[in-house]
Amino acid sequence: MTHVVITGTGLYTPEHAIDNAALVAAFNAWVDAENAQYADAIQRGEREPLAHSSSEFIEKASGIKSRYVLDASGILDPQRMRPKLPQRGNDEPSIQCEMATAAARQALAAAQVDATDIELVIVACSNLERAYPAVAVEVQQALGTSGYGFDMNVACSSATFAIETAANAIASGSVKRALVVNPEICSAHLNFRDRDSHFIFGDACTAVVLENSAVAVASEQFEVLGTRLVTQFSNAIRNNAGFLNRVTDSDPLALDKLFVQEGRRVFREVCPMVAKLITDHLASLELTGSDLKRMWLHQANRHMNDLIARKVLGYDPSETQAPIILDRYANTSSAGSVIAFHLHHDELVEGDIGVICSFGAGYSAGSVVIRRL
Ligand SMILES: CC(C)(COP(=O)(O)OP(=O)(O)OC[C@H]1O[C@@H](n2cnc3c(N)ncnc32)[C@H](O)[C@@H]1OP(=O)(O)O)[C@@H](O)C(=O)NCCC(=O)NCCS
């Protein structure tokens, strides 16, 4: 029987960081300008004044203190409030390809694998910067990997869904080694003028090398004991940007072409779904929550993670058992649970079991149970 192992991970973190205070200052400056511009209408009761955002609210409601972004200046300019990224020509590397190769090179080095020995590249993320050619094929060329590559999008669950796809390709014998990369430019789909969500996201890219254990040589290896995925349709997290926008004559700049969510509803509906997914998945592997040394959960909201971990483990997890990285990174969509794994796996010893778990739009959730070899 073929055993699949995770042998290396990598993380690209953008240089720019924005803390809550800076983000809120830009937002509030825009609010003040809008309220001044419409002062008469507000005075006449024809228009509601916009309310300020607050750092205290953001940290208390979500646990987020700061986020990394590809461009801070455009986001923090109250006249613009979106990143400013120069358009690239067809003969230049795409932004996502650059992010992906930076993270991938770290993962390949950790796995002690040459790029040429990778036979499958999956670029899996919430937003792709173009329709085609696939970013994965560009990454394949940039790194010099062999075989094939393709893109996939399952929103915040893209990484775990891609890990399952890669593990299956290895288990079936199609390939011996695969690379999964998650270049997330969440700052480009975020409405920085929406008080309810302007603080939620950050940018990052993660990479994971998976191999057939028979060819793996890395000093640190995690066997994939099993993967389980679930989806359930919901409009509570939605983004209507798409290639039909042009032909349906809908406004490509309208706010429904950005991330929109009903945060409370997401919280209420997703937590039980994820806790059940992990618990059922563990049971199918004849394991329970008490067998888990670590839970590397999707990083959207600290309270969600605490609640899910409590439901699975039966007690409040320590910071070590369920690491939080969203305080520094915010929600980096599919990259989040892999960042938690990348930064918090060194202390695990042989035999220790953990779960990488993502959840998000769709709804979609994925569980990857692994054991340190
Ligand atoms: C988004 C989220 C942090 C909001 O937290 P919440 O506790 O649900 O907050 P609510 O939206 O109910 O707002 C509570 C109050 O704070 C106010 N508020 C909202 N945003 C605010 C801000 N930026 N600053 C200050 N106050 C704010 C609201 O107006 C509301 O005021 P009210 O009680 O007077 O009506 C939370 O719902 C969440 O994280 N949900 C899950 C999201 C998720 O995981 N999405 C997946 C994306 S992949």
From TrEMBL:
Segments forming domain Beta-ketoacyl-[acyl-carrier-protein] synthase III C-terminal: 283-371
A Pfam family hit: ACP_syn_III
Ranges where the Beta-ketoacyl-[acyl-carrier-protein] synthase III N-terminal domain occurs: 150-226
Keyword set, alphabetical order: Acyltransferase, Transferase
CDD domains for the chain: KAS_III
InterPro entries: ACP_syn_III_C, ACP_syn_III_N, Thiolase-like
Name the record gives this protein: Beta-ketoacyl-ACP synthase III
